[in-house]
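Aim 2 progress update. The chain analyzed this quarter is reproduced below.
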Amino acid sequence: MAVLQTIDNSRAILVNDIRIIRWNIEKTYLRDLQQGGVPIVPTVFGDRLRCNLLDGYFAECGSERIIIKPVISTNATDTFLLEKKPPEEVMQRLLAAFSERRFMVQPFIPGIQKEGEYSLFYFANRFSHAINKRPESGDFRVQEEHGASIERIEPEAGLIAAANRALALVQPAPLYARCDFIRSDAGEFLIMELELIEPSMYLRMKAGSALEFARAFDGFVKKQSSA
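Predicted structure tokens:
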């Protein structure tokens, strides 16, 4: 953040805006989206994990399985899928990761394994394309690095509406955005993450999307330069 602030103080144009980056770098932004009326995966935030707290998180999430991951993370690093009374070896790794580190807890939603995760991509607030990411059999991680399969989809209207609601809350408007969703057991689209800091944009999945992004970037820079 100190480096980014130096860039922002210079004549360079920082994209996305540093205010967006500050807000988006920690996943506590999910609380702001929820307060703005956007359905999110139910999330509990914690500062330091202790053994005696774990049972309470299962109860608070109302789930037999929970996800624990860092508030700041990429590519599912230090992401744990837990059942009650995890093995001692897992518990030791969990405590090593979070005994002095902020974390978040979410109920495990089975739809991630059945249906996968949906990602919608926007350039200059205009929808470009969408993909579905399905984890490898027996896994729950949807990153390609972990064996997930990726395919382009035409998103249903409810999914686009959910992404539009989330992005409408972001000010200033981002040049680029990726909105990640999962479908709940009740059929509601819940936002997993709003990726506004250099996400993978899967331009290969739609012919012409690189040109879309280039044109949006060009227009943004020209506008910023003339301001």
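The mean pLDDT is 91. Strands lie at 44-46, 65-70, 80-83, 103-107, 117-123, 126-134, 149-153, 176-183, 189-195. These observations will guide the mutagenesis experiments scheduled for the next reporting period.
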